[in-house]
Write a structure and sequence with these properties.
Blueprint (H helix, E strand, L loop, with lengths): L5 E7 L4 E8 L6 E8 L2 H12 L4 E7 L6 H8 L3 E5 L15 H14 L10 H33 L12 H8 L6 H31 L6 H7 L7 H11 L8 H8 L3 E3 L8 E4 L5 H11 L10 H9 L2 H23 L4 H26 L1
Parallel strand pairs: 1-4, 4-5
Antiparallel strand pairs: 1-2, 2-3, 6-7
Helix pairs in contact: 4-6, 4-8, 7-8, 7-13, 8-10, 9-13, 10-13, 12-13
């Protein structure tokens, strides 16, 4: 072993090749670029073993991106420390306008040594598979929404406007099937749009069925059951939230979870002036959007419907008590904020933020119950 027993390794990943740089321990340690290696398990294993033969301690890092977590798992299997870095939280000089793989690798190694990098939670392979499944459903739902908007815009342009209260229900579908368009070309376009919507609906149904079949064998299945006791949460919503957030136990306080989800107010204060703005919208947008959608249900009075009773009964008693307490408090909170003249979107976001605290409590009680 050499004198430099501690080395920090920064890896700038890409599809075909990885750029590698190292920073020797200590404030004045040398930072140098090692070169590029192929983006294969064999090349990475060779690099780790070569560095391990020269140094006692190795610390690796790379930025989260399209290459996934395979590199992280490989380095951990080789017995070395590795962190996946949040790219949005990586410090960058405002005047730096040159970006190359070499410079990025050197910067990562230097920042890792200084402790200036923010790591992200790396899921295991099973959790990542569940996340891919729920994200596939979210993608198809967005595609279905887009196709519906295209059809509505097409009919509106032709002077066809549905006057009912709710679109895409039975009455709306009956109205759509009864449309008589003047030209053959327009009828063909209309039929193709309807066919695309039907195919997208079938894809959503198949993916939701797959999620329901996969949840019982998931490590967070009990947590999904507990979350379903909360108002506004069904199987898809609970699975989506947990697949995106992961282990709730990694957040020591509810405020940390809210900050991670971007549900805390932004702030730009200086001197004696305190200025707070809208929520930061940082962190996971999919989980934040699902929480806000679930918070919409708290505009109604507190109650447990027939369809919800079975889900509530499946949760532990402590969780049921938290769920009912949260429902009575948040429904009253919603009405109070509306009476104060707050905008509806602002109120829903506030409810989602407070609901997030209750979610953390549910996770803590469930772990205690287990």
């Amino acid at each position: 072993m050499g004198e430099d027993s501690e080395v920090f390794v920064g890896i700038d990943t890409s599809k075909l090749r990885h750029a590698v740089a190292i920073a020797q321990g200590g404030r004045g340690g040398e930072v140098r670029f090692l070169g590029e290696i192929e983006a294969t398990d064999a090349a990475v294993t060779k690099l780790v073993r070569r560095l391990a033969a020269k140094h006692d301690k190795l610390f690796f890092c790379y930025e989260a991106g399209p290459t996934g977590y395979g590199l992280y798992r490989l380095i951990k299997e080789l017995g070395r420390d590795c962190v996946v870095v949040a790219p949005s939280m990586t410090p960058k000089r405002p005047g730096d306008r040159v970006k190359t793989n070499r410079r990025d690798a050197l910067s990562l190694a230097r920042l890792l040594r200084a402790g200036e990098l923010t790591s992200v939670w790396a899921p295991d392979e099973r959790h990542e598979a569940m996340r891919d499944l729920v994200r596939a459903r979210s993608t198809v739902v967005a595609d279905l929404r887009s196709k519906r908007q295209q059809l509505s815009a097409f009919l509106l342009r032709l002077g066809c406007h549905f006057t009912g209260k709710k679109t895409w229900g039975r009455a709306h579908m009956k109205w759509l099937l009864g449309q008589k368009l003047a030209h053959r070309e327009q009828r063909l376009a209309f039929e193709e749009m309807m066919l695309a919507i039907g195919e997208a609906q079938g894809r959503v149904a198949r993916l939701e069925q797959a999620i329901g079949a996969a949840v019982p064998d998931w490590s967070l299945a009990e947590m999904v059951t507990a979350l379903m006791a909360m108002r506004g949460i069904d199987l898809i919503a609970g699975t989506t939230i947990l697949a995106e957030i992961g282990d709730l136990g990694r957040f020591s306080t509810p405020r940390e979870l809210m900050a991670w989800l971007g549900l805390v107010p932004s702030e730009a204060s200086t001197g004696d002036r305190v200025r707070r703005g809208s929520i930061t919208k940082t962190g996971n947008s999919r989980a934040r959007r699902m929480l806000i959608e679930c918070a919409q249900s708290y505009r109604f009075p507190a109650r447990v419907g027939l369809a919800k009773q079975a889900r509530v009964a499946a949760a532990p008693r402590a969780v049921r008590e938290i769920a009912w307490k949260a429902q009575t408090r948040l429904t009253a909170r919603y009405r109070a904020l509306i009476k104060r003249g707050k905008l509806r979107n602002v109120v829903v976001t506030a409810i989602a933020r407070e609901w997030d605290c209750q979610e953390s409590c549910v996770g803590g009680r469930l772990n205690h119950h287990a």
